[in-house]
Amino acid sequence: MQAKWKAALIWLVLAVAGFYLINELIVVGVINAFIENMLVTIGINIILATGLNLIIGFSGQFSLGHAGFMAIGAYATAIITQQISNTLGFYLSLGVGMVIAMLVAVVIGIPTLRLRGDYLAIATMGAAEIIRVVINNLKITNGAAGMYNIPALANWPTVYVFVCLTTLMIVNFARSRAGRAIQAIREDEIAAEAVGINPTKWKLAAFVMGAATAAIGGSLHAVYIQTIAPSDFGIMQSISLLIIVVLGGVGSITGTFVAAIVLGVLDTALQQFGALRMVIYALALILIMVFKPSGLLGRYEVSIKGLLERKGGHHGTTDSHEVE
Amino acid sequence: MQTFFQQVINGLSLGSIYALLALGYTMVYGIIKLINFAHGDIYMIGAFWGYYVINQYHVDFGVALVSAMAVSAILGMVIEYLAYRPLRHSPRITALITAIGVSYFLENGMSFLFGANTRNFPQVIGQARYTFFGVTITNIQLLIVAVALVLMVGLQLIVQHTRMGTAMRAVAVDQEAAELVGIDPNHIISFTFGLGSALAGAAGVLIGLYYNSIDPLMGMVPGIKAFVAAVVGGIGSIPGAAIGGFLIGLLETFVQAIGLSAYKDAAVYIVLIIILIVLPAGLLGKNVKEKV
Amino acid sequence: MALLTVTKLSKQFGGLDAVADVDMHVDAGELVALIGPNGAGKTTLFNLLTGVTPATSGKVTLTTASGKVALLGKRPSDIAKLGLARTFQNIRLFSKLSVRDNLQAAMTHRYHENFFAEILRLPAYYKKEALVGGWTDALLREFDLTAVADLDAGNLPYGTQRRVEIARAAATAPRIIFLDEPAAGMNPEETAGLRELIEKLRTDFQLTVVLIEHDMSLVMNLAERIYVLDHGKMIAEGTPAQIQKDPAVIAAYLGGGVHA
Fold first, then answer.
1. Which of A55, A122, A200, A252 to mutate to test the interface with B (most CBs of B within 10 A)?
2. Does the beta-carbon distance from A294 to B276 stay under 8 Å?
3. Less CB within 10 Å around the terminal CB: N or C of chain C?
4. Which of C100, C121, C171 sits opposite A172 (nearest CB)?
């Protein structure tokens, strides 16, 4: 069997096994409601942060406005499921949220993506704040009070499946024609243009794709938490997603998973410290960055295909990044 | 017309605070390309220090202001030494996350130690109102603008006319070349943090006096606004930061005055985005094109 | 037949004429060299032709299968798609991408992948990847890069990086390739290899080559025609033999820096 099929099969088996493992642990009571909640939060953060990593790590565009797209997804779901409060309504709202987020990403991206580095960061942050202020002042979104009693239309299996789907989507996107083009732009925009890559077009593609996944994360957040308010989607939310990306390693999807899990567990473990929680969290953040400046995993990526090929002892056309 | 000038006065007062904060952002960014997210929290510490010495030792405003500047300067230098210096050669995004960590640490550390509640800043200066042609100005507004202007002129003198200032500008242009002519960049960077933080500390005491209330999270929003002001003015440019600060202060005040206070933040960001699209390096920033 | 025609091309940087009223033409299949003292405007001319720097005035026309196309005002990426490829004086590789990915990124405009085929890994995706993989393997062999195909381009020795950059330019399937000082910093052995490589571009890839180079032995041996630029002006044009005797050229090089 070809390595690529073997690798795909192993990933599928792992995903299914993970699902059953969590399911069993819930049945036997090892995972209680508290831990389940933690796992779901981690899952939603993975969905949001992998999309951001596509923008920051792969296309090299420093976006600080991810929470804005998350808000669009969350509010689309909250508003639509008020009218159609069943699973169908949820999936409809998910699609609507994605489409709106992508359109808004195009509108924001075309003028701002020509900016570089920190200028882009501050412009996207501003754009996300504008989205938030608008939501804060609209009637349909119930203003600053936010929306509550959103029907609980997602449980952990929903989130689990979406984690798998969005990750698959982003990893496959990053390892294809599009992915090579956006990484070329990240490495050297002038050289990329000189070999026929239109930077505006491809940066926008990555930005829009990231926005779409952020909307998915927002929709899931809305139906899982069941209460949302504009203040949930401020600069601090964008920053906490950025923290996951950088802590895991910019450009490493595996790293994003690891960082989301580490931070999720840390957050839960620190609950018992009460007011001291955020102080410890902040210290942990500073220490990890000072001692591990390129993030927990750097650019490392787990690759089953790579493992198979190394074991088989033949050099193949591996598209995996090994340890840098 | 009367209201217009009234808003100008209010806008200039608020703008002075933003300008003082923006100067710290712009100097630090100019020299090590770091968005010092903890800068707004140093402003908070400055305000708390003023609150503490006035209540505890009954010092007058001048002592409170100067001591807050000194404490903030030391704090800024300590933060730079412990948290940023080890990351001098790391990716810039790593230093940014560290700065965010420092910001969280200061905010939550203060909340933990002294409580998260809002408190009243002692009014060491009795408020007086003067009315000229129907435009009211308080002595505190005058003080804020005057102190801010004096500090800005002082800063400009330091940067343009002292050996330290020359060295700062040299390091900002080319750190390695500065090192070759015998400037110790660590020394200069530390000095820059001290200078910027002192201005933030002063802004903290002034805002305490102006708004009469302080809390551990008070630095978050003004910090971000001041950074926006620095970017609007052209980050790295000291006059740019001052202009940007006043501009954002005036803008906010006017948007509020025409009854759109719910949209004042949005207005700031719209102006930011428009300015960046037209002038990608801000009002006074130099747009450096990459050489091919 | 002229493949590329440049008419009265000028570029001013703040009043300074970096390139002034330059006329030149490049015929299909030719190897043309562009020489001149440092600061003569050679790289600026390349930047104008490839769209990196906008020109102040003038005309650049490319003859394509579907007629003549004006290049000025087009985006660099569109100019690249029309068949103008280049290398850079100070190598600009996609450092953290493998050599293979460097080449494949340069093929972006040569094929299309359906978005859904990409993210769902449909058979169409594998078909396209196999096609592009085939092109890449062939290029890697041609440029003797197979052994380093999976290494990060930024970690390779200097000479190899130069080769990768030329291979990357070739990967865009160009009609003309502009080489900006490819021999700079190379040892004699590497320069000899480079010479073979440039010959290969013409014979195996049937490319038209425009070369900026300071290594005069390379220029005189390779070029069929030479243009000489000095202070932004085209001061001479001719065969290597003519150029070596041209008094204006000798004067420009301060009385005799030109050795065959």
1. A122
2. no
3. N
4. C121
- Residue B217 is predicted with a pLDDT of 94
**Is the pLDDT at C254 greater than 70, yes or no?**
no
Q: Does residue C182 sit within a domain?
A: yes
C70 and C187 housed in the same domain: yes
Q: Are residues C37 and C151 in the same domain?
A: no
Domain range summary for chain A, segments of one domain joined by +: 7-237
Look at residue C228 and tell me if it is in a domain: yes
> Which of the two residues, C211 and C255, has the higher pLDDT score?
C211
pLDDT grade for C260, boundaries at 50, 70 and 90: very low
Longest dimension (CA), chain A: 63
Q: Average pLDDT over chain B, rounded to whole?
A: 92
In this prediction, residues A268-273 reach a mean pLDDT of 89
Specify whether C146 is located in the same domain as C216.
Answer: no
Look up the CATH number of the domain holding residue C22: 3.40.50.300
Give the pLDDT of residue A315: 42
Would you say residue A316 has pLDDT above 50?
no
Residue C162's contacts (CB-CB under 8 Å, 6 or more residues apart) are: C87, C91, C182, C186, C190, C194
- What is the tens place of the pLDDT at every residue in C175-201? 999 999 999 888 888 899 999 999 999
Neighbours of chain C (3+ CB pairs under 8 A): A, B
Examine the fold and report which residue of C138, C173, C208 is the final residue of a domain before the chain moves on: C173
Dist. CA A303–CA B201, nearest whole Å:
51
Using a CB-CB cut-off of 8 Å, the residues of chain B touching C88 are 292
My answer on whether C183 and C247 are in the same domain is yes
A194 touches chain B (CB under 8 A): no
Please report which residue ranges of chain C form alpha helices under DSSP H. Answer: 42-49, 76-81, 99-105, 115-120, 123-142, 158-171, 188-203, 216-222, 240-245, 247-252
Contact of C102 with chain B, judged by CB distance below 8 Å, is answered with no
Domain that holds residue C259: 1-83+175-260
Residues of chain A contacting B85 with CB distance shorter than 8 Å: none
Structure tokens at A321: 């990044």
- B38-85 pLDDT, tens digit each: 999 999 999 999 999 999 999 999 999 999 999 999 999 999 999 999
Specify the number of domains making up chain C: 2
Query: What is the pLDDT averaged over residues B247-253?
Result: 95
Per-residue pLDDT tens digits for A197-244: 999 999 999 999 999 999 999 999 999 999 999 999 999 999 999 999
- Is C91 among the domain residues? no
Statement to judge: residues C181 and C161 lie in one domain: no
Question: Which one of B33, B34, B41, B97 makes the best mutation probe of the A interface by having the most chain A beta carbons within 10 Å?
Answer: B97
Residue C255 has pLDDT above 60, yes or no: no
Is this complex scored with an ipTM above 0.90?
yes
Cβ separation of C80 and A192 shorter than 8 Å?
no
Band of pLDDT at residue A51, cut at 50, 70 and 90: very high
Question: Could you tell me how many residues make up chain A?
Answer: 324
- Residue A263 makes CB contacts below 8 A (sequence gap 6+) with A45, A243, A244, A247
Chain C contact present for B289, CB below 8 A: no
Quick one: angle between helices A277-291 and A235-248, nearest 10?
40
Residues C180 and C248 in one domain: yes
A contact test, residue of C52, C71, C74, C108 with most A CBs within 10 A? C108
A169: left (phi over 0), alpha (psi -120 to 50) or beta: alpha
Asked if C205 has any chain A CB less than 8 Å from its own CB, the reply is: no
pLDDT recorded at residue C65: 87
- Tell which residue, A242, A241, A243, A256, has the closest CA to residue A299: A256
Query: Rounded to a whole number, what is the distance in Å from the CA of B91 to chain C's nearest CA?
Result: 15
The residue from C112, C143, C173 where one domain ends is C173
Neighbours of chain B (3+ CB pairs under 8 A): A, C
For residue C69, report the phi and psi dihedrals to the nearest 5 degrees: -125, 130
